[in-house]
Amino acid sequence: MAESADREAWAAGHAAAEADARARGLAVEFVPRTPGERPAPIDGVEPVKTIVVQRRDGYVLVLAPLAEQFSWAKLRALLGVNRLSLPDPAGALAATGYARGTISPLGARGDWPVVMDARLSGARIVIGSGSPAAGAIVDADELARAYAATVADLGADS
Question: Which residues are within 8 A (CB) of 29 and not within 5 positions of it... i.e. 6 or more apart?
Answer without folding.
Answer: 136, 137, 138
